[in-house]
């Protein structure tokens, strides 16, 4: 009998031990990567991130998954880079001009009239041309692991803009970098840097006359309500960058890192696919709400930013090389 009880005891200890281990294992296994995102859940990048998270969780056996905070809940893009640097959150999607403030060379991939089309941009983003540039900022506590398209940006305000002179005296909001301000100034207006979240009210209150952005964001943020003329200047295909805390990224096992990197590449490609469909849907909504889309001869605008292009290309050997490589991939 004693022997029997002893056996039961050992068995119980063994079973409890096993279930304990299992619990602990699941506890430490899932690392939540908090992602700051400044647009809505309807945005193509949000959808791409959601899909990425599902695959990441499945392929790393639950080691990682994302928790995305949309609508700039965690602050504007500049603030969210700091949160990533300090490890308060792990990831963020930020416009290229924001990272340009850490290394000026980034300006070259957000140059006006650099890419001929989305197809051209896709070839560049799926190539390895930009890897050394991305690595260059890792000493700041974050890594750039990927790059999203954000379509082509156009000017919108209270009237049609068909030539640079039309922007005379017009304060147009731009993203927060010197290059963006210079670009809008060269195009004939007054570039006014500010965070995206402030734009609607600033136009409404007459602090600025308009903004410049892609159709998806124009509609997502209902900017058509305050600036109903969207003119196809197509001046800028500035990318968004996917950034992650440097420590979090480099602490991944080689297997998980590979899964992560491969899935990022797949996500970039996917986002290109849905982008065009979203543009059409966005335009429809804007038109139904009274917005007008105006075709523009872009030649005079291209001319107006030539000097800026030259300045940026000549920042360094890196920018010269990247510019040449990008142009080589044009159709
Ligand atoms: C685009 C881009 C965002 C950026 C925004 C802006 O929507 O995708 O990353 O924040 O423009 O104008 O600030």
List keywords for this structure.
11 strands, 48% helix, binds alpha-D-glucopyranuronic acid
Which H/E pattern describes the elements?
A: HEHEHEHHHEEEHEHEHEEHHEHHH
Spatial order of the strands forming the largest sheet: 2-1-3-10-4
Roughly how many Å apart are the termini? 85 Å
Count the strands?
Answer: 11
Amount of beta strand: 15-25%
- Large-scale geometry: globular
Q: List the ligand species.
A: alpha-D-glucopyranuronic acid
Radius of gyration: 24 Å
Decide which structural class fits the backbone. Answer: alpha/beta
Biggest sheet overview: 5 strands, mixed
Tally of alpha and pi helices = 14
The parts where pLDDT drops under 50 for at least 5 residues are 4-26
- Helical percent range? 40-55%
pLDDT averaged over residues: 92
Q: In brief, what are we looking at here?
A:
This protein has 331 residues and is α/β, with parallel strands linked by helices. It has 14 helices and 11 strands.
Task: Describe the protein.
With 331 residues, the protein is of the alpha/beta class. The chain is 48% helix and 17% strand. β1, α2 and β2 (64-69) form a beta-alpha-beta unit. The structure holds alpha-D-glucopyranuronic acid (GCU).
Describe how the helices and strands are arranged.
Blueprint: H1 2-29, E1 31-36, H2 44-59, E2 64-69, H3 77-86, E3 91-95, H4 96-100, H5 118-125, H6 131-135, E4 142-148, E5 153-157, E6 171-174, H7 178-186, E7 190-193, H8 199-204, E8 211-213, H9 215-220, E9 229-236, E10 240-245, H10 246-250, H11 254-288, E11 292-294, H12 299-304, H13 306-313, H14 317-328
Parallel strand pairs: 1-2, 1-3, 6-7, 9-11
Antiparallel strand pairs: 3-10, 4-10, 5-8, 5-9
Helix pairs in contact: 2-11
The structure holds alpha-D-glucopyranuronic acid (GCU).
């Amino acid at each position: 009998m004693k022997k029997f009880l002893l056996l039961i005891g050992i068995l119980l200890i063994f079973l409890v031990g096993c279930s304990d281990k299992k619990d602990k294992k699941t506890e430490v296994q899932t690392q939540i990567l908090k992602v700051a995102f400044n647009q809505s859940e309807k945005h193509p990048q949000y959808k791409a991130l959601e899909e990425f998270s599902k695959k990441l969780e499945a392929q790393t056996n639950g080691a990682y998954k994302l928790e995305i905070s949309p609508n700039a809940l965690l602050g504007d893009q500049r603030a969210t880079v700091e949160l990533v640097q300090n490890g308060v959150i792990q990831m963020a999607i930020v416009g290229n001009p924001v990272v340009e403030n850490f290394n000026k060379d980034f300006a070259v991939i957000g140059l006006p009239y650099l890419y001929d089309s989305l197809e051209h941009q896709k070839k560049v983003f799926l190539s390895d041309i930009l890897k050394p540039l991305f690595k260059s900022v890792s000493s700041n506590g974050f890594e750039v692991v990927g790059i999203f398209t954000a379509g082509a940006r156009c000017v919108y305000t209270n009237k049609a803009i068909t030539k640079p002179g039309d922007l005379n005296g017009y304060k147009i909001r731009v993203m927060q970098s010197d290059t963006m301000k210079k670009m809008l100034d060269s195009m004939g207006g007054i570039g006014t840097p500010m965070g995206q979240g402030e734009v609607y009210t600033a136009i409404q209150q007459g602090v600025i006359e308009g903004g410049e952005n892609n159709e998806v964001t124009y509609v997502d943020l209902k900017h058509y309500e305050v600036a109903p003329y969207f003119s196809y200047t197509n001046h800028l295909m500035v990318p968004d960058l996917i950034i992650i805390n440097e420590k979090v990224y480099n602490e991944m096992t080689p297997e998980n890192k590979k899964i992560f990197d491969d899935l990022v590449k797949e996500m970039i490609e996917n986002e290109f696919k849905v982008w065009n469909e979203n543009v059409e849907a966005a335009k429809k909504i804007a038109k139904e709400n009274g917005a007008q889309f105006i075709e523009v001869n872009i030649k005079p605008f291209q001319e107006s930013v030539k000097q800026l292009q030259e300045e940026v290309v000549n920042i360094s050997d890196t920018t010269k090389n990247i510019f040449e490589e990008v142009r080589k991939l044009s159709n």
